[in-house]
Amino acid sequence: MKISIFDVYYFKSMIFREAIKTRFRRVVSIDEPPHRISLAFAIGVFIAFSPTIGLHTISAVAAAWLFKMNRAVIIAGSLVSNPWTIVFVYGSSICFGSFILQNENSCFIESLGKNELMAYPKTMLMPYLTGTIVLGIIVALISYFLLYMVLVMYKGKK
Fold it and tell me: What phi and psi values does residue 79 have, to the nearest 5 degrees?
């Protein structure tokens, strides 16, 4: 019996779907109101967009302690930014911050000379900070309302 690449992909996608279902069931089974679960997740998402690269888990644990929220849910929200998504999160934040500040020079590098690469961090800092904060707030709000609606529907069925 031969196994094709499509069979392997299908098998992996089944495992991935089951893992997501299991984690979702754990989140909805938390004995807290949907508002608190959604708020904790949104705080984690905001932390994921924060400019503190490498400190997201520490920030999530500190926020959970500070706001007396569920630590696992906040950490789950902070995992939106991970090695697979970090380029998209921070790249979109830089471009969004450039759009807000009307600084079209900092979103893309036109040439890769030594002078351009040395000047890029200087032109990128303010768009980066602005974009991470504003986009973090927007995505956190969206994630709050989406998760809240899902939790209300799911817990309402039980």
Answer: -80, 5
Which has the closest alpha carbon to 128: 103, 100, 93, 101?
A: 93
pLDDT digit string, tens, across residues 45-101: 999 999 888 888 899 999 999 999 999 899 888 888 777 888 888 888 888 998 898
Residues 50, 128: Cα–Cα separation, whole Å: 10
Q: Which class for 123: exposed (0-12), middle (13-18), buried (19 or more C-beta within 10 A)?
A: middle
pTM across the whole model:
0.79
Residue type, 86: I
Contacts of 96 (CB under 8 A, 6+ apart): 130, 131, 134, 135
